[in-house]
Amino acid sequence: MRLRSTISFLTSVLIMALCLGNMSAFAQTQKITGKIATKSGQGIAGAVVRVKENNFRTTTDEAGTFTVQADKSSTLVVSSFGFITTEKKITGDNVTVVLNDDPALLTEVVVTAYGIKKEQKRIGYSVSVVKGSDVNKVRDANPLNALAGKVAGLSVGANAEMLGRPEIVLRGSTDLLFVVDGVPVNTDTWNISPDDIETYTVLKGTNASALYGFRGLNGAIVITTKRGTKDKKGWSVDVNSSNMFQKGFLTVPESQTEYGRGKTFAYDYGNRLYDNAQRLQEYGPRFEGQLVRQYDSPYDPVTGIRTPTPWTARGADNFNKFMETGLVSTNNVALSASGDRYDIRMSVSHMYQKGVAPNTKLNADNFNLSAGYNITSKFKVEANLNLNQQYSPNIPDVNYGPNSYIYMFKVYGSSDYDINDLKDVYKGPQGVPGLMQYAQEYGRENSAWFMAKQWLRSHDKTDIYGYVKASYKFSDALNLSVRSQLTTWNQARTEKVPAGANLNTYTPWYYFGWYGDYHEDKRSLMENNTDLILNFDKKVSNWTISALAGASERSFKYNSFWGTTKALAIPGLYSLSNSKDAALSYTWGSKMQVYSAFYSMDFTFKNYFTLSHTGRVDKLSTLADGNNAFYYPSVSASTVLTDYLHLPKAVSFIKLRASYANVKGALTQSAVPSAFTQVTGKSTNGGLLGYGSDLYSSYDGPSYANQNAYAITSYYNGTASVDYSSTIANPTLKPFNRQTVEAGLDMKFLKNRIGFDLTFFQSLNGPQIYALPVAPSTSYGAQNVNGITTKKQGFELSINGSPLRSAKGLNWDVNFNIASYKETLDAIYGNEKVLSLNSHNYKVGDRLDAYYGAGFVRDGSNNIFYSGGLPLRAPSDINNNTFLGNLNPDFTFGFGNKFSLNNFSFSFQFDGRIGGKIYDEVYKDGMNGGTSIESASGDFGVARLAEWQTTSMGTVAPTPKYVAPGLTITGGTPIFSNGQITNLKDLTIVPNTTASTVQNFISSGIGNVTEYWMVDRSYVKLREVSLGYTFPAKMLGNNKVIKSASISLVGRNLLYFAARKDFDIDQFTSGFNDANRSLNTGGALQSVTTRNFGFNINLTF
Amino acid sequence: MKNKLIIPILTILFASSVFTACQKGDLLSNPNVAAETSTVPASLILNHITATLQRGEDPIISDVWKYDQYFVSNYSYYFGSNFYNWSNTGHTYDIVKYANKMEEQAFKQFGNKTNVYYALSKFFKAHSFVWLSERVGDIPMYQAGDVTILEPKYDSQKEVFKNSLNMLDTANTIIGALISSANANTKVDAAGDIYGMTFLQWQKVINTYKLRVLISLSKRADDNADLNVKAQFAAIISNPTKYPIMTANSDNMVYTYNSAYNQYPVNRAGYSPYGYAANMNKTVLDLLTTNKDPRTFAFAVPAPAQLAAPNSKAVSDFTAYVGADVNVSQATLSNNSTAGMYSFINWNRYFSNAAGANCEPYIFLGYPEMCFNIAEAANRGWIPGTVAADWYLKGINASLGVYKLTQGQSFVIGNLDGTKPNMGTATIDITTFLAQPGVVYAGDNAAGLTQILNQKYIAFFSNSGFQSFYNQRRTGVPTFSQGGAGIGTPNNAIPVRWLYPQDEINFNNANLTTALTSQYGGSDNVNSLMWLIK
User: Which of A314, B153, B211, B239 is deepest in the core (most CB within 10 A)?
Assistant: First the structure.
């Protein structure tokens, strides 16, 4: 075509101009023709062909052919954007040079749905790729945490808990699909060995994953594993060792060490062996060395008299003394080999994590085997198996209760005892071996050492996924493959609560001096996906057609068990049959079947544009006949302007893209809690035990949410009872709907030295399948409807640059990404005007992450009203909740830099989220408990000290000294609306002069005002730093055994910038979660987070 | 070519057979539950109803006992605030749903509509409608609980009471027909009925409850002849064969606590170590101590400052028992309490045992209340021939019986948190108490009525949910403390009703608006008087 010729001509001119200075006389030459082609044999247009000896240059035509003048023994140097520059000696009149893809330009070819590789420039939607080798050095225990900050729009909230699953949010949605080598896997995010990963491809949003159906609704993370590679000697061995030490707190709540255990400045352990009748805060007497009866004061067992001892802050450093240095060590050996007809790779990894809490650890073994064999040139079989085994004798649990170290040290953490004194967990006179712990008190807390050594929570999981695939190539154009995949896991967790553990009134069957308790949680999941896919690739005149059609069957099975003793009969024997009262057990299981047919077609017209279209039909077992089969399509288009427009030299690449997708699905849930919770609808914590976290496993199975049924339960004294559904089932329920449109712009300048990738998206999520509340007078709570549509709009921008690039000097690569979105209510249902959700009536157009709750009442000038010395409260109905902020961040960003100089490389990354609000639970709990530093500093500190001074060393009631700066109403009746007074002018308002004690002001005052505890959600982390050295070949010397070696010093989570550093905001990724319409306000206790340092060694043999 | 294809085809067949397990059969239905078409023993539904009849807010030391002015919280974190800042009410329509389901299953199981589950179902429905109507006014009744009507129409409060009384009558008729001398004393359903009552006891409950409903209509007894309030009341009193009523505390409908499953509420909620955070309310304590009422010792422990020097009072000294005024700000209550100025709830009795072994079980509907209801009706002249004073005394003695107090008993007094379980003893002197001028019945006049109502109020301590509050709302007796910052409403006045449930406002708005217009001039306001108490 004319355009192409023009560009070829221009290119030639350009090259000639560049080469002018090098012109020299031609030697005796002859005419040589040839072709430059890709691996698949396609001609490469516009490739530059240079004769090394005489510098003659030309470019290839559309078919990839060229003609040069050269000596017969000359060498050709061929280069083209996106390919590795290749030299080849001429061996005849006609020469073909095959160019390999340049892996450095990893954006060129990407893996999309079903593992289909596509040229990046032909794709009409947003895809990001992260290379495994880029994230494997600065390790975290969880492989997916490494993706944090790397991809615009993807937030990975590393869980602060050991074996915790990170909260992964893409464009504001959780519940992403994980695909390994083209097939979906069920993952806890721990069953993936990072050393086996070649690339992580993030398919953002609905468009990219339309082919995976509703499971890919929120986008997908497509993992491509490494395969056997060709090497001169046919095999290679890679060894990678990564060791990270966790030391030094990144976020930790600060504690006051001025006042100890007690209430209203008084404390007395009493003349008794155990003080289990009193549960105290840390609002006790000031540490002034006065004599107080304490837990370790000399005790006369005959008279029961305790001799007082000095009251000092001997445990000011308890938390630091107790916590240890953690370690995450990962070692991997991989052997890969390949020959003419086969490729094989075997990889064995071991991960060992030692927690920062004593006696906690986790092991994970991972075995990965992949092999391919070409039976004939047309017929190929492949198989992959990944086996992952996790085992831990003890992982810590964290929430508000006496099973949690944070509760023990940072909520009710008095400094009146030395933690090291409790190391002998059965020390007398309180301790009785095997029966009763030696603890600092017996009403609220446990000895942390007793917990660490005796209160154990085990975890065992076997996780297998793999596939067998056979493909037959009928011709270059037509390929048929069948693949059957399996993903299955089996997990058992137990909790051994030792005799003498204090659970006070948390657990109904607890009594002081009991023999302990035992819980068991077993779950297993099995899923099979079998698909048959016909691929078609052909060039028909000016059109390149790439199409596929397929069918798949998904078969799913899940079973779970949860049981608990009701106090142990024999202490130390942890078994369900050893129960004092009849043990409780629950089972829950499910099955599901999905049949699908799908197709995908890409049409590329010359190099002008590509049009793609996909379609899918699903037939689900979770919907009633008649509504259970449904179709949904997607379309996309892309064009690379630089392929056919004459643009200034500085512009290397411009691509425009747009897409639309529609996805439907129904009645599945992404995660599943314990069998107890599934059966009773209550959490094990709130519904039974009163402590502990309910574990949610990756599930993706049926929710059974649209059925009227009786469930068995018990309300009274163990007698059998039933519950009937409170949601009215809808027999004509249709699948939910989500439509996404997306447009993007990809630009590269200055020979790709700088590039931008900008994406705008909008998705209409709905009508959803929604349990819409009904009037209680119907006697039901809700009805299932197809209703509620939300609109999400946002953008993602990535900027990549290489400010410095030099073969021998300093190289600097930088990338920056930023993303933002907002989700608003777009439609409700029928004539409904408001959507009542999360304690607020939302109207169409409202942001759904807007959070409402109890706020302060203020005058027009921001002065707070008080009544009786405590904050004035508005009426408690929903309309008087006040706006407390939006929970979602305004934007997220990542900023990475990589420097290299000869064999040294240095990189670092900052990332974070800016904007939004979050509830600081540890702050509130620590203040209520009297432990938080803020309860004894500033104005509170001054007042608290003044109050203490009125108590005669804690013997009389304190005189209140804290007068909150603000106003009080002395006349008139306020009228409230939206939590604020509307008739200020009718009221008599004077400054507040009523004092209350600091303890009362906090616990009975601001403790009830949610607004006080809402803090800025913004944070920035110095996520990773790495200093690497690659040993030069000559240093490895004649020792041909080691082919390459590198070592890196690495650091992770080194710095944290936030308004408050008492908890790590990073883990609270989502604000409003559109999957379950819940608000993630923070609002929970969690472990402290640490700085990680270590080193990484990589060897190739 | 043929040979070449064999291997691939075989392999494909092999591969596809490896894991594929096509699951047949019904995958739509949840295998973990019983479908709505299942036959579920009516007994299991009765179990649900009886076990959940008591609402979450009802048990002792929950918010209602602060609203009733029996105790005050001096520390918000443990016992909440004392604020009367009521908003949207809870409801009991779930009971209506289960009653409907129980009828449906009982018919499947027994093939008739005259079995005992039908009788009980009528009682539960009547109880549910009255329960909600007492809180808000008009409510949906006739169209309620029908899954095909998502926006049920509202019925007037009068109609709700009228129909509920009819349902109670039907319940009495059905169960009456089932009772014979052979089964009168057998349990209705040992597995299903957590109250464990006999046929005859259930019949007594139905009629005793009806007396409560009728007396609650005292303000409407004269101007609504069609309701026949007085005649219906008299019909029950005059015909004990047709309408058996409770005859002793042993007929009480009692929720019994146990340690491993259904703990006594203060223990269940984790309050037992926090006795110091709950003081006795002045309203109830003043009524008790003025008349030297021995129940003082059962309910409360002395204010520490009264026992200490310079007061140095004995634990048996009624003046050592000082209540806290809920009008006062919680911060002040806390300081005063720390200084020992107030009495606390009797820890030994109410907090010390997980099963509530040292105190009375929770009375859902009881004989003492019935006695006072009859006394009130007699005082009001509804039941000529019945002597109010007799029932007044029966009520007092029955109440003392509930708290297990006997003449001359030596009663051990403990302290606020169980650390000193025996601070001394008091002697229970019922004779002196009954002889107090404030206790001796003043006759069928206003003073006598106040005495009846005061004694009923005291007898409601730790039982019967909101009845104490409703009686006070209807009669103004006893006088509740209000007007101070501790009340926590904009005008610091005690509200007289709740707002309608939020989801009625959101999802049944047109009908609700009509009901609000006809009752309260269109606004849903906690200070508006409903028909029942106008």
Answer: B211
